[in-house]
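Saturday, quiet lab. Running sequence design on the structure tokens for the scaffold JK sent over.
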């Protein structure tokens, strides 16, 4: 059978370490092997996608390439017993958009083991408002629950709060009943953060202690950290006894300089989050929670929708740390 022609963002290396991207026609014949051919209706923009779109070889080794670690769509061809044609599904992480052609194209072909059935009553569009960002925030919340960081016990902090993971974390934690403190470098976005649930909004510099003191005043019971570096070190040094921090991102720095005192004197716990390789057993539990008890009442407040044609502007903005909220990509036509 002849492959289907579709539209995709294609990033090419035109000379060594020089990259350009544009919208091109591709054929499903070019897609990798996999049990499921999925017609993508929506994708979402993540920081990692922006790096892949700029030729970051630590993320994508080979170009030409179509990024997009998130995709929601309808199964068009199935060689799986688990999924049938016309079923609504989503894929986040694994190798999608890294070295496997990703969600910034109207078709993907993937192994059945990467695919999740759409949570009950959730539209394809709504699932991509969460995407990897919401799923990652969900893993952190799952770890809070497993470690008895419950809403009745104290305040929780979210750093990089206006970003994709950050704003989903603020809104989902609020939905779950937590008292959320949001830290941001965008003072003009205080209203936005309060509207989506933050009880307090603090300045990024307030969580960037340069004193090198091994322990700081206790401020939070739990934290979701999206920025790393000295911010993560400050958060760890400021956690309450037996507090938990989920380490998610590195937009400030990938370094962590501190002593072990918070761990051995306060029993603080540092939990690493790797959303891409989360085993399917946990993945299904987290998506079930996202579709139920953590489901945001007004997800539309968080979202900016674009098309493939305008995605470049959004990629540029996320690389500058300038996005507020979640960007989703409409690939319907
Ligand atoms: N571990 C995982 O599985 C996983 C999954 C998804 C994402 N991530 C990582 O999580 C991070 C956030 O991803 P994202 O997609 O949410 O990105 P994003 O939308 O760009 O959000 C990052 C936010 O961090 C803040 N920020 C930016 N530059 C900063 C700096 N120099 N110092 C301090 N804060 C800064 C900004 O928020 P404010 O202006 O509000 O401070 C920005 O909006 C990235 O590092 C990404 O790679 C990891």
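Result came back. Writing it out in full:
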């Amino acid at each position: 059978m002849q492959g289907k022609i579709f539209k995709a963002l294609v990033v090419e290396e035109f000379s060594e370490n020089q990259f350009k991207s544009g919208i091109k026609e591709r054929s499903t014949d070019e897609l990798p092997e996999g049990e499921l051919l999925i017609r993508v209706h929506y994708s979402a923009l993540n920081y990692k996608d922006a790096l892949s779109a700029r030729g970051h070889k630590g993320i994508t080794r080979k170009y030409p390439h179509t990024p997009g670690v998130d995709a929601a769509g309808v199964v068009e061809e199935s060689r799986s017993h688990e999924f049938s044609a016309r079923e609504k599904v989503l894929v986040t992480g694994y190798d999608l958009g890294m070295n496997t052609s990703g969600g910034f194209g109207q078709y993907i072909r993937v192994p059945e083991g990467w695919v999740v059935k759409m949570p009950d009553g959730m539209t394809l569009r709504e699932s991509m408002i969460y995407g990897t960002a919401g799923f990652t925030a969900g893993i952190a919340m799952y770890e809070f629950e497993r470690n008895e960081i419950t809403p009745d016990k104290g305040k929780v902090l979210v750093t990089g709060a206006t970003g994709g993971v950050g704003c989903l974390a603020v809104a989902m934690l609020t939905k779950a009943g937590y008292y959320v403190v949001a830290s941001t470098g965008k003072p003009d976005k205080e209203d936005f953060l309060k509207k989506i649930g933050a009880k307090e909004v603090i300045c990024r510099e307030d969580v960037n202690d340069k004193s090198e003191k091994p322990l700081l005043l206790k401020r939070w019971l739990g934290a979701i950290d999206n920025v790393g570096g000295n911010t993560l070190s400050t958060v760890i040094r400021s956690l309450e006894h037996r507090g938990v921090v989920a380490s998610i991102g590195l937009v400030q720095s990938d370094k962590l300089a501190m002593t072990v005192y918070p761990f051995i004197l306060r029993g603080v716990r540092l939990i690493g989050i790797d959303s891409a390789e989360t085993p399917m057993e946990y993945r299904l539990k987290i998506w079930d929670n996202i579709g139920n008890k953590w489901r945001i009442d007004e997800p539309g407040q968080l979202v900016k929708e674009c098309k493939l044609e305008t995605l470049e502007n959004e990629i540029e903005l996320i690389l500058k740390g300038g996005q507020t909220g979640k960007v989703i990509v409409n690939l319907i036509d």
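Notes for JK: Residues 142 and 285 are 9 Å apart (CA to CA). The longest strand covers residues 5-15. Ask whether to fix the surface positions before the next round.
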